[in-house]
Amino acid sequence: GWEAQLAAGWQGLAVPSAVFAGSVASERINQRVVDCASRRWPQQALIWLRSQASCCGVRIQYAEPERFGVDRLAALVGARALLGARPLVVVDVGTALTVDVLEASGLHRGGWIMPGLRLMAASLGAGAARLAQVDWGAVNISCAPQHASGSAILAGVRCMAQGGVRQALHSATGVLGVQPEVVICGGDAVVLAEALVEYRQHSRATLVLDGLAIMAEQG
Fold it and tell me: Is the pTM of this model over 0.85?
């Protein structure tokens, strides 16, 4: 599982001066992360990074900024560090599919939260038990019409993700007054590249981790 992957990834690392983490997962999973870190570096207390109204050049307009997902904030921080002060939209295609709009000034102009591809497919499975199981190894299937239920689900959720993000980017362009550059991250990011050809795209798999590292360094 992921705990073994963490242990393997940490193997051979020097003892850190501090250990930071950011999470939007459940408290149960967060505690397991704490346990993993404690086993590896028992002398270091894990420090949780939280969202705040202003962080590393990014300003959040939520009435309760601590309720803004730290993963979304980290992605914005990472994108701004990657590309500088310019109009940006960050698209994270993971468990949830999030789209966030950032002015050149660093002001967050809002965003959208949608279900990710696997959540969309799972909702079909929960609501219609006779539908076929989805083979996620075929996630790169096109949006063309399909002739089997499993591939039709993959094509359908892919179309929904692409259409939702395209509509969000259209709205973001109106909010910003210019066409933004798009930074894409997340495990299913590949499904969007073909749908956003008219936008200048940047793919950065480690974007959230980049942002968390910057947040940790700047306190």
Answer: yes
